[in-house]
Amino acid sequence: MTDRAIRNLAHLRRSASTARVLNLLKVTHEHGHEADWRANPVFRTPALNSALIIKHRLRRDELDAFHLRRQVATKVVIPIDSDDLKTGGRFVFVDQRGFERMMQETFGLEPDHPDLATLRLMDALPSLDPFLLREQLKRAGIEPAACYFSISDGDLMRMVQFVEAEIRPLVTLSLGAGIEAVGSTRRLAGKILSNDPGDRMEALRQTLHLKPEEYQEGIFCWKGFLYYKWVLTSLMSDVAGVADAVSTVKPLGKVDRNAREYLDRGRQVLRDRIIAVCDDASRTLLIYENAYKALTEQARPGAFRDFLLQAPRLFTRLGEQLGAIQHVVSFWRFRFSPGAAPVGVDELIDVFMDFETGLADRDQELGQRFLAA
């Protein structure tokens, strides 16, 4: 592991979990004394339960590690010394070639071990956003302690209120406006946010002519779209602030000509990419919004049915986009907060390269433009 990689790992140790990182080591240090943490871990294997789980955008030389082509992988990092991350760590990608053999040799886990199933559930998500991760695990009957998910009660309440406002047109279409509709809106919001297999809103499923498994997966992704719409709305002011700060941040110490050229070019590229990814995410959300309006305003359930059928693919795309934006905003808050240590030249270059990689278009080949610098 290179010096730069070690520094990045040390930063992950101090920072909180984000859409890109599930910091189980930090959770262990802060909550390992609690009974709930001991009784309801994410992983049964102690080493995995103190690992760093990272959504990693694959570099070109890493693509051959997988049987199928993919752009983002789930990286499991096991620190060599949990008290000193400068010593680095060992890592494996979930479902890379030889994954089950490596997990058996390293941890003694058989292919049917529950921890491997949990890792694959995480890998199936486009980001490790705590809300969606919690929902994904609950769907599989896995309910770890609340300390693993950095979701405040206030955020959950705001999310429920946002969903209620979003689905009100659907309830009004069915019942009209009035006191009964208000109660029905709350009940329907509860059903959408529920993971109870018996709470599938059968009337809507039958209206849309969907098979139970299609409908259940579509509803989960609809919930994801609602959450991501809320996230994007909540992030916009922070995103604008970070985009402006990228243009003006200056590193500590002497900047040679090559570094200056890289940083000057990087500022504009990153600002453009941040704006482009937000715009692209908005366009993806517009697909949902148009389908929903067709259902509620034009009485065309077929359009919403088509949306639910393609929702899993769109959900993955949207999750990767917003996961990248959330990572940029959360890391910037952490590293460039008031009172934080000044950032040196090499570290600022690392940050720019990390952001550029995360914000790169999934079909774009990352070539010489940044890596050569």
Describe the structure.
There is one protein chain. The chain is mainly alpha-helical and 373 residues long. It folds into two domains: 149 residues, no CATH class; 172 residues, no CATH class. It is built from 14 helices and four strands. It has a four-stranded antiparallel sheet, sandwiched between helices. It is globular and about 65 Å long. The chain starts with a helix and ends with a helix. The relative contact order is 0.11. The N terminus and C terminus are likely disordered.
The global form is: globular
Structural class comes to mainly alpha
How many DSSP H or I helices?
Answer: 14
Total discrete domains? 2
Percent in strands:
5-15%
Topology as a string of helices (H) and strands (E):
HEHHEEEHHHHHHHHHHH
- What is the radius of gyration? 22 Å
What is the helical fraction, as a range of percent? 55-70%
CA distance, first residue to last residue: 20 Å
Question: Count of DSSP E strands?
Answer: 4
How are the elements arranged and paired?
Layout: H1 3-14, E1 21-23, H2 24-31, H3 35-39, E2 52-57, E3 72-79, E4 89-93, H4 99-107, H5 114-124, H6 130-139, H7 153-175, H8 179-192, H9 202-208, H10 212-248, H11 257-296, H12 301-335, H13 345-359, H14 368-371
Antiparallel strand pairs: 1-2, 2-3, 3-4
Summary of the model, kept short:
Helix content is 62%, strand content 6%.
Which features does this protein show?
disordered C terminus; 14 helices; four-stranded antiparallel sheet; 62% helix
